[in-house]
């Protein structure tokens, strides 16, 4: 079974404006809201791809109830731990470019952490655990590593999609997959990475540091894949960018869904990139048929 963990879920409030003037009243021309948070997005995409999964995490208040309700309508199994504060609202602002304003999120206390660990204790060999998104400020930055420590030698494959401070401590636990984007990769090594060529040595380093599979996503410039056998580059399909929110999560879900079907890392990487682009080219998340349509436009090169 696949489990996702979203420690800090959100309602993503998408707003489109013709123009935005600081210090004035600005009127929205188009708006939408969606349940969000990286783990929840992975759950929603997995569900669309026919991969059963259960979403764990902390949710609270009227915003949390909206998330719970929406996921229930989509037949996604959830086992969230209620917290006292309201789940955050993240603003996704589109004027010409996309700007994101992500909230802090509610406080999580010791008892709520204990409850999460108890649920994770139920995982067994063959399960996959996806740890995605930021760790709230009330939890220690090495929280994902603490989860990995608790699950070590249980045969649970762990996937982590998070920024430097949350991700680096997990590497010694040999996560099955990590997916930094180009900027996050640079941040991990104190470098500015501007091209696939510049990213290659650092992607290889992440494998040396413990990751079994690494995808470095680079938006419209495609993605890189690293493991002990392969260093691959995938071009991204061309199309009109409608929404990049969740594109990275679609890469994670696409890789996982395809890998669990065929255990072929190269094929799963290709599917993952098509999934990311299918989401980027649509207002919502990708579906299986949308991914299939783009697959032949994803060209893989062995580096
Ligand atoms: N403009 C684009 N054109 C084509 N494909 C895109 C574009 N933007 C994103 N993608 C696809 O989505 C994948 C992930 O994008 P990106 O690298 O922006 O992830 P991310 O930064 O983790 O995204 P997010 O955090 O917004 O979900 C890319 O590898 C690519 O396949
Ligand atoms: O603040 P975090 O946890 O790093 O990211 C949260 C978030 O930006 O990531 C998702 C897209 O990947 C959105 O649904 C959500 O708003």
In words, what does this structure look like?
Pathway: Carbohydrate metabolism; D-tagatose 6-phosphate degradation; D-glyceraldehyde 3-phosphate and glycerone phosphate from D-tagatose 6-phosphate: step 1/2. Catalyzes the ATP-dependent phosphorylation of fructose-l-phosphate to fructose-l,6-bisphosphate. Its EC number is 2.7.1.144. One of its GO terms (cellular component) is cytosol. Residues 6-285 form the Carbohydrate kinase PfkB domain. By secondary structure, the chain is α/β, with parallel strands linked by helices. The chain has two domains: 1-20 and 29-171, Ribokinase (UDP-N-acetylmuramoyl-L-alanine:D-glutamate ligase, 3-Layer(aba) Sandwich), CATH 3.40.1190; 176-303, Ribokinase (UDP-N-acetylmuramoyl-L-alanine:D-glutamate ligase, 3-Layer(aba) Sandwich), CATH 3.40.1190.20. The chain contains ten helices and 14 strands. The chain has helices spanning 38-48, 61-73, 110-120, 143-151, 164-167, 182-189, 196-208, 247-262, 265-280, 288-295; strands at residues 2-6, 10-16, 30-36, 53-59, 77-82, 88-94, 98-101, 128-132, 157-161, 177-178, 213-217, 223-226, 231-234, 300-302. It has a ten-stranded mixed β-sheet, with helices on both faces. Strands 3-2-6-7 form a four-stranded mixed β-sheet. Helix 8 runs antiparallel to helix 9 and helix 9 crosses helix 10 (288-295). The chain is globular and about 50 Å long. Adenosine-5'-triphosphate is lined by residues 181, 217-220, 222-223, 236-237, 241, 244-249, 251, 273, 276-277, 280.
